[in-house]
């Protein structure tokens, strides 16, 4: 076969195109592993239409771009090159077919947003029309079609993650890729979005994080994860790497299990808080896929509540004043604004504060989670649709099966930033305040003039929200839907482990 004549020579091994998506690594890469027996053309397609969506952003591309550059260098070091194309995947595949003749397509299965789902269906249709076999390899504990049942989900997840790692193939016959460059943000129409310190992209950075979390940073994880002050270093910070696939979930899981086994071998007093921390971390790794499974099972929950009785509960506002104040960190609630400004600058914030931000937008500002969720999605470097949308609607109380948890922005400020260091740093207008005045500047006779007045009364709006939600929850329609939602999406943990939090559904937390 030559570039001019795409007919493969008789008996020539068939070409495989390995389509890299959000799996930017060579190690434990099921698609590459399966393709490596014959010639391989490694491909990445930057899709401008994807990057024009309201849930995508500059920071997400910046992280992917850096990770892609490292992957390309890794392939170059092995004698090949990564073909990076800009356009649509179907056009790109058609051009490859014109140049190289028929091929097999290998990729990882993706649970993305509605756009990537439609794109994958278009690729599937192209493959069927051209007789191109496409194998989608599983990298996460997420199942499709007939395999959707939740009943054995957790044990299947454990079994999948315990499978042997697909080590990088010793030799790959890389096919000459068409010369290409990695587009920069500007080429994709993405303007800088205020990110000041992007997490370091690429596999090497991911490996360093994994190692430092498991051996140095992670011991206080269980307690420290709740505060943005301590969570910054005590959380693993692996989320953008899972988003970009620079590390595989399996290798993270197995590295953690190896560390747990090593700890088992040392005397109990020397283990410190590590065993609890690592057990809790493994639980979070399950959650990653548990949430993604929800979107895989019902893609509509990207925009519809799992319990449809909640549809339209929060109307789209007539003006964008509340959404803008939320997005800009100018709500007049110091801890909410500090968290938002920190997120805008860094692209990350800890779980509890993400939940508080969504709670504030949903209960206090009564904004539809689809709108506030898009603001947060753009700000998260680690935006993962399968986690993000189910979490967003859960924190807004619209799944019908989860406890309604309304966070008090004042209490959270006192609990998670007791010294006020974080709040003062990110809301410098309040640099001279501390204690109650810092978290509730509206109580001062002369509040700092350059800081916005609070946008709503948090106690009054929380009371009203609770009444609205519980009135709806008590209706026959909502009750009937709850069991169907649980059947489809609920965790099958034993009852004992699902004991209700004493605070669930009561006061603000
Ligand atoms: C409204 C809202 C939106 C969210 N959107 C995203 C998102 O777009 N992308 C994303 O990766 N996470 C999202 N999360 C979950 C969670 O906040 C982040 O995964 C976590 O803060 C990432 O930091 P880390 O890697 O240091 O987490 P660690 O605490 O170190 O956890 C390790 C990994 O476990 C998984 N994980 C941890 N907590 C959760 C959780 N509550 N639900 C599901 N998986 C979890 C993640 O993959 C994470 O990287 C969201 C949470 C909320 C409340």
Provide structural commentary.
The chain is mainly α and 509 residues long. 49% of the residues lie in helices and 6% in strands. The chain is built from 23 helices and six strands. Helix 1 links the parallel strand 1 (15-20) and strand 2 (39-46). The radius of gyration is 24 Å and the shape is globular. 44% of the residues are buried. Bound molecules: flavin-adenine dinucleotide.
Which CATH-level-2 architecture of the largest domain? Answer: Orthogonal Bundle
Radius of gyration: 24 Å
Determine the oligomeric state from the structure. single chain
What is the assigned CATH homologous superfamily of the largest domain?
A: DNA Cyclobutane Dipyrimidine Photolyase, subunit A, domain 3
Helix fraction, binned, reads: 40-55%
Average pLDDT level: 93
Largest sheet: 6 strands, parallel
- Give the number of domains: 3
Low-confidence segments, ≥5 residues, pLDDT <50?
495-508
Percent range for β-strand residues: 5-15%
Listed once per kind, the bound small molecules are: flavin-adenine dinucleotide
Distance between the termini: 66 Å
* CATH C-level of the largest domain: Mainly Alpha
Number of strands: 6
């Amino acid at each position: 076969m030559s570039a001019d004549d795409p007919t493969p020579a008789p008996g020539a091994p068939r070409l495989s195109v390995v389509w890299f998506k959000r799996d930017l690594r060579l190690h434990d890469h099921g698609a590459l592993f399966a393709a490596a027996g014959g010639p391989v053309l490694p491909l990445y397609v930057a899709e401008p239409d994807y990057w024009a969506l309201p849930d995508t952003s500059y920071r997400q591309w910046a992280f992917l771009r850096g990770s892609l550059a490292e992957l390309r260098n890794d392939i170059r070091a092995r004698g090949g090159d990564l073909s990076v194309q800009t356009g649509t995947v179907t056009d790109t595949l058609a051009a490859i077919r014109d140049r190289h003749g028929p091929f097999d397509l290998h990729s990882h299965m993706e649970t993305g947003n509605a756009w990537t789902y439609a794109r994958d269906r278009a690729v599937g249709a192209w493959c069927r029309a051209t007789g191109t076999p496409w194998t989608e390899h599983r990298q996460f504990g997420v199942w499709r079609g007939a395999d959707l049942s939740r009943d054995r989900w957790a044990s299947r997840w454990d079994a999948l993650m315990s499978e042997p790692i697909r080590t990088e193939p010793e030799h790959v016959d890389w096919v000459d890729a068409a010369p290409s460059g990695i587009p920069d943000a500007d080429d994709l129409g993405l303007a800088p979005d205020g990110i000041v310190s992007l997490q370091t992209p690429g596999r090497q950075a991911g490996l360093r994080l994994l190692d430092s979390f498991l051996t140095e940073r992670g011991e206080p994880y269980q307690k420290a994860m709740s505060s943005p002050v301590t969570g910054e270093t005590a959380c693993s910070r692996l989320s953008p790497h899972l988003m970009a696939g620079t590390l595989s979930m399996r290798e993270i899981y197995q590295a953690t299990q190896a560390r747990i086994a090593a700890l088992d071998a040392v005397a109990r007093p020397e283990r410190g808080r590590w065993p609890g921390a690592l057990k809790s971390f493994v639980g979070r790794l399950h959650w990653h896929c548990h949430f993604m499974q929800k979107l895989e099972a019902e893609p509509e929950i990207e925009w519809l509540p799992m319990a449809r009785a909640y549809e339209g509960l929060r109307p789209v506002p007539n003006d964008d004043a509340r959404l803008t104040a939320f997005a800009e960190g100018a709500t007049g609630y110091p801890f909410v604004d500090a968290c938002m400004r920190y997120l805008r600058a860094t692209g990350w914030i800890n779980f509890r504060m993400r939940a508080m931000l969504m709670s504030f937008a949903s209960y206090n500002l009564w904004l539809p989670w689809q709108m506030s969720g898009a603001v947060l999605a753009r700000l998260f470097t680690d935006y993962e649709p399968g986690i993000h949308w189910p979490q967003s609607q859960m924190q807004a109380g619209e799944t019908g099966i989860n406890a309604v948890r309304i966070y008090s922005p004042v209490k959270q400020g006192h609990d998670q930033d007791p010294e006020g260091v974080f709040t003062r740093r990110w809301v410098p207008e309040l640099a001279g305040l501390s204690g109650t005045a810092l978290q509730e500047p509206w109580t001062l006779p002369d509040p700092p003039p350059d800081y916005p007045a609070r946008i709503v009364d948090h106690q009054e709006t929380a009371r009203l929200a609770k009444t609205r939600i519980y009135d709806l929850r008590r209706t026959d329609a909502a009750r009937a839907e709850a069991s169907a939602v649980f059947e489809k999406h609920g965790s099958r943990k034993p009852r004992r482990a699902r004991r209700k939090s004493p605070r669930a559904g009561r006061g603000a937390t």
